[in-house]
Amino acid sequence: MTDGSSDRPVLSVEGLSTAYFTDKETVHAISDIDLSVRRGETLGIVGESGSGKSVTARSLTGMVKSPGRLLDGQIKYRHPETVTALAERYPDRVETPSAHTESDAFVFDGPTDRYVDLAAAPETALRSVRGDDIAMVFQDPLASLNPVYTVGNQIKELLKIHRDFGDSAATERAVDLLDSVGIPDPARRLREYPHQFSGGMQQRALIAMALACDPEVLVCDEPTTALDVTIQAQILELLDDLQAERDLALLFITHDMGVIAEIADRVSVMYAGEVVEHAPVEALFETPAHPYSRGLLASIPSQNPDTEHLPTIDGDVPTPTSEPTQCRFAPRCPDAFDACRDVHPRHVDVGEDRTASCLLYPEDQPRERALRTHSKTTTEENR
Ligand SMILES: Nc1ncnc2c1ncn2[C@@H]1O[C@H](COP(=O)(O)OP(=O)(O)OP(=O)(O)O)[C@@H](O)[C@H]1O
Ligand code: NI
User: Fold this and answer.
1) What is the mean pLDDT of residues 224-247?
2) Whether residue 255 has its Cβ less than 6 Å from ligand 1
3) How far apart are CA 262 and CA 42, in angstroms?
4) Which ligand sits nearest to residue 318's alpha carbon?
5) Across residues 13-36, what is the average pLDDT?
6) How many A from CA of 322 to the centre of ligand 1?
7) Which residues contact 33 (CB under 8 A, 6 or more apart)?
């Protein structure tokens, strides 16, 4: 490829913020999130309950429901066919180097980068991206499957609507899909209802549905949390195989560091609506940079074989009701110092391909100087 898009991440999220406006308060569920995932890569998103993982997943394809709303940020989806198709469908909303349109452009067709900004896309465009380009698998399979239709009919329906398949072609493809996710005797299971499937088989069926339209990106939000460990391990292995076969970009959300170790290539650690560390998985486990990451790791049984009681991080994730002006982890942080309560940390490089947002860094600088790095306003920085 000559347009340079091929070596960029298929999905990159920049400065994404989503808030819920309730009668009582505004919940800044995610603030200024950056993420990226490449084809064939698994990005793990980890954090305790309430850290904003699911809101991040929902924000990606316009699934945030009122009273929630995206406030800011870009979601750059780079898939040449989609860029071309949406540019044709929304000619007034395309920005090219020769034709600068109004500010409501969401298709960017430049010489060095071609993408669709899903944060600015209209719902009609998002609807065609959702499921087709970016598919999701959620924790509770029964909530995502319709109890009154057979599993086969649900898969076939997708293929008929999104792919214009006829009935027999859809049946054939549905059998292949169930087979590819390791469901034995697929032609027979196709005629069964979701409740006739075990939990693990339901989750496999959901993965088959997610893959029906050949997505580029698969987002899995705690897909194995409800399953027992043996079945969980089988599903993780399945996802790993499917990803390799299809060169999928996989975004895998979990609160479980053990699962992250199994499946992720790179990891983004979330806390109270922010990403606090980005790192390759080996580096994160060997030398976690952010004190929160250290705390999460210390609570994995396999990392502490000798301890009878696993250390946990005291306290809970706060519900963020304002934009961050300080370190949100400071109240629970064993390494916190005075400035942590006044200065909002920015992401700084802490190694190859890794950053952390913590006032302890840059580590090689005297603290005063390090603090000045964090105090800089966004406009001073060359964004
Ligand atoms: N519909 C909503 N209305 C108000 N606040 C919401 C809503 N949905 C999510 N939130 C808030 O957004 C924040 C992030 O929630 P989110 O569900 O993304 O967390 P999570 O990391 O997925 O947690 P879990 O591991 O429990 O699934 C929480 O403070 C939550 O209370
Ligand atoms: Ni969640």
Assistant:
1) 93
2) yes
3) 11
4) 1
5) 97
6) 15
7) 13, 15, 16, 17, 52, 56, 73, 270, 273, 274, 275
Look at the block and give the residue holding tokens 């697929």.
186
Q: Given phi > 0 = left and psi -120 to 50 = alpha, else beta, which region is 227?
A: beta
Task: Give residue 66 CA to ligand 1 midpoint distance, Å.
Answer: 13
200 within ligand 1 shell (Cβ under 6 A): no
Does the C-beta of 52 come closer than 6 Å to ligand 1? yes
Q: What end-to-end distance do the CA atoms of the chain give, in Å?
A: 27
In tens, the pLDDT along 288-326 reads 999 999 999 988 776 655 555 556 777 888 899 998 889
Burial 98-126 (b: 16+ CB within 10 A, else e): eeeeeeebbbbbeeeebbbbbbbbeeebb
Q: Is residue 51 in contact with ligand 1, taking CB distance under 6 Å?
A: yes
Ligand 1 atom closest to Cα of 320? 29
Task: Given the cut 0.95, state whether the ipTM is greater than it.
Answer: yes
